[in-house]
Specification:
The complex is a heterodimer of chains A (303) and B (299). Chain A is mainly alpha-helical. Chain A has one domain (79-296): MetI-like fold. Chain A is 79% helix and 0% strand. Chain A has 13 helices and no strands. Chain A has helices at 2-10, 14-55, 65-72, 74-106, 112-120, 127-138, 143-150, 166-194, 198-206, 211-239, 243-249, 256-265, 269-302. Chain A starts with a helix and ends with a helix. Chain B contains 13 helices and no strands. Chain B has a domain at 92-263: MetI-like fold (Orthogonal Bundle). Helices cover 79% and strands 0% of the residues of chain B. The model of chain B is unreliable at 1-23 (pLDDT under 50). Chain B has 299 residues and is an all-alpha fold. The longest helix of chain B is centred in the last third of the chain and has 33 residues, at 265-297. Chain B has helices at residues 2-25, 29-60, 64-68, 82-88, 93-124, 130-139, 149-159, 165-190, 193-201, 206-235, 238-243, 250-261, 265-297. Classes of the chains: A mainly alpha (303), B mainly alpha (299).
Chain lengths: 303, 299
């Protein structure tokens, strides 16, 4: 009461003050507004448009023809299978390697700063460049065949990237993806591990925990939340795999995003949007499934 | 508080841990072997990351006929700028490089101009809808950004933005904006609110207090967020390819040459190295800040 009186005594006239107060309460909204408008125009509305494009003709007739044509397309099942195979193989491996690498960094080796630098180099490398790097290794006259020949292990060159050798082509794409994206997950792991209070690890030691017990029972549970978010984000990004595949396989390995690119190149925006819709649906489904699985496992943990 | 606990712990630790530590520090055979295995693993992983970069580098700096030679030597006989020059002088490469830099700069300016105020608002004010807005921003990450480019291309033709640097920069801004908002918000949370209020009691108005006090303190973090946007833009391939026809960015040009024309191997290798080179330098200089920054950005 007294402080209020003092404030009003010191403040400028009442009208000014109410304006200032109103401005103050409106300020956060004013600051948010540009970002809201920008995201509406360049993010939210285009997402809706992608949906509309896939089910409506340019003349405004609602139709399922684009979706039907997509499903009947010879490459559709291949694109779906390839995308899923890349995700199912590459994403778990990324996490296994990233956790191992993060623990290695935490093991306080000499030169661990140097190791960390080497291992984070791919952070800023694009998927296109990663594909081209591994192209130099896996192409017919590439370094892998060269080494295999000069060492006499395999005198006849093998076409690792030929569509006839699906297994090795898939392997090449997965290796390039691992090379590029493991670093990102590792950074999350290392950042999480460094946040674990030393007391926890010391306490584990005092109670006689072995190295593995410390990792399983203290470190991994502590970084679990950030790993869960990373898992969702990596999977969503993997559904959009594109340039790595183009660089290594060209057209011999269709994936969902490259089919969208091809439809667009054929001036068929609606067909491209149909593929975009598939990517969108799988991404949202993945997020939903993960969140649900995580929630139930957390409830079990709580019990 | 923490000093206190430390002080309380030290005598205990000295008394009890000393004998343990003395025993633990004695290198047993098993410990040495484990240590060696850990080093072997770390070196193997390092080779997995470094050897491919070495190989693309020697490919990019060997004469063009060496690229088609077989079998290749792992140590090149001759080095030459021939292949790199072939790429550098290929049609569109130089202007694409300029475009890439311009788009990156535009995207980082837009994302800061639009994102930082929002981040500041989320950090400093308690208002109705604050948590929902934060949630909304987080939710955008569940949406695949690849699919934005197709409807955007359709819109851009109407808005006269198709095949312009502005258009690509807007798309990259949209991709970077959610991250920029969240990161700048956590940066401003880290800048003490009391300092700003102190400046205001000393006669600054709100804007002055922000510009003179909060902004300088937040600058390193804001720079990191800006660089993140630039790297995202420099590397982004799909949208840049879809949204341009002749005004390509570098990755868009390289991708289109590969996918649509079947560019020759020297072009691909030199292009690959050219795209990677900046990231080597960048990571080298940023390596100290990487954990904090990427830990933030990808969280």
């Amino acid at each position: 009461m007294t402080s209020d009186a003092r404030v009003s005594a010191l403040s400028p006239p009442a009208t000014n003050q109410s304006f200032a107060r109103r401005f103050e309460s409106a300020l956060p909204y004013i600051l948010l507004l540009p970002s809201a408008i920008f995201l509406l125009i360049f993010f939210a509305w285009p997402m809706v448009q992608a949906l509309i494009l896939s089910v409506r003709t340019p003349d405004g007739v609602w139709t399922t023809q684009y979706l039907e044509r997509m499903v009947r397309d010879v490459n559709f099942t291949d694109a779906l299978r390839n995308t899923f195979l890349i995700i199912l193989i590459a994403v778990p491996l990324q996490f296994v390697f990233a956790i191992a690498m993060g623990l290695l960094i935490q093991a306080k080796l000499k030169a661990s700063g140097l190791f960390l630098y080497f291992w984070t180099i791919p952070l800023a490398v694009s998927d296109l460049a990663a594909g081209l790097v591994w192209l130099a290794i896996f192409s017919d006259r590439g370094f892998l065949n060269s080494v295999l020949r000069t060492t006499g292990i395999m005198p006849i060159a093998f076409s690792w990237l030929s569509f006839e050798n699906y297994g090795t082509l898939l392997m090449a794409v997965v290796i390039a993806e691992l090379w590029r994206a493991t670093s990102i997950v590792m950074v999350i792991v290392v950042a999480g591990l460094q946040l674990i209070p030393n007391d926890y690890l010391e306490a584990a030691e005092v109670f006689g925990a072995s190295r593995w017990q410390k990792i399983w029972n203290v470190m991994l549970p502590m970084i679990r939340p950030s790993l869960q978010v990373a898992l969702i984000l990596r999977t969503i990004l993997a559904f959009q795999v594109f340039a790595v595949v183009i660089a290594l396989a060209g057209r011999s390995m269709p994936v969902l995003a490259s089919e969208a690119y091809n439809r667009y190149g054929e001036l068929n925006s609606n067909g491209a949007a149909a593929y975009a819709l598939v990517i969108l649906i799988f991404s949202l489904l993945t997020t939903g499934l993960y969140l649900r699985a995580l929630r139930t496992s957390e409830e079990e943990m709580g019990r | 508080m923490s000093a206190q606990t430390n002080a309380m712990r030290t005598p205990l630790a000295n008394a009890e841990e000393m004998p343990f530590n003395a025993a633990a520090n004695k290198p047993t055979l098993a410990k040495t072997i484990t240590r060696l295995l850990l080093y072997a693993a770390a070196i193997t992983i390092s080779l997995f990351f470094l050897v491919p970069i070495y190989l693309i580098a020697i490919s990019a700096f060997s004469p063009q006929q060496a690229i088609f030679a077989y079998p290749k030597a792992l140590i090149p006989q001759t080095l030459s700028a021939d292949t790199m020059l072939f790429f550098w002088n290929a049609r569109g490469v130089q202007s694409a490089l300029v475009n890439s830099v311009l788009v990156g700069i535009l995207a980082l300016i837009f994302s800061l101009l639009v994102g930082a105020p929002a981040g500041y608002a989320l950090a400093r004010f308690l208002f109705r809808g604050r948590d929902s807005y934060k949630m909304l921003i987080l939710t955008t990450r569940a949406f695949p950004i690849v699919i934005l480019s197709i409807p955007l291309a359709v819109n851009y033709i109407q808005w006269n933005l198709y095949d312009t640097l502005w258009g690509v920069a807007f798309a990259h801004t949209a991709m970077a904006l959610p991250t920029t908002i969240l990161v700048t918000s956590s940066i401003f949370i880290g800048v003490s609110r009391e300092l700003e209020e102190a400046a205001q009691t000393l006669g600054c108005n709100r804007a002055q207090a922000f510009i003179k006090v909060a902004l300088p303190l937040a600058l390193p973090g804001l720079a990191a967020a800006a660089i993140f946007t630039f790297v995202l833009s420099w590397n982004e391939t799909f949208a840049a390819t879809i949204l341009t026809q002749r005004n390509r960015t570098l990755p868009a040009l390289v991708l289109a040459q590969i996918a649509d024309v079947g560019a020759p191997l020297p072009f691909r290798y030199a292009g690959g190295f050219f795209l990677i080179a900046p990231s080597l330098i960048y990571i080298f200089f940023m390596r100290k800040y990487l954990l904090g920054m990427w830990g933030q950005v990808v969280k």
